[in-house]
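Reviewer has doubts. Consider these tokens.
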Amino acid sequence: MIISLRKWWERAKFVALFLFLTILLHVVLQAAENRFKPDYDYRKPHGQAVKAGAKPDAVEFESMRDRLMFFYWFGE
């Protein structure tokens, strides 16, 4: 069996180039993600603002219909 060093060298160069470009793409995508990541959305609102989705105080329901309407209205 004859082992061609030239073929193995070409394969090794291809694998090295492939790994290098894969790692480069990963780094570029990670940098883009960090650049365009939104700020922390769960901070307390400032001033007179009210955080959306705040649930009203505990409510006692007289019927199942009232409870169902509350569910549809507030999405709880």
Notes: Helices lie at 5-36, 64-74. The radius of gyration is 30 Å.
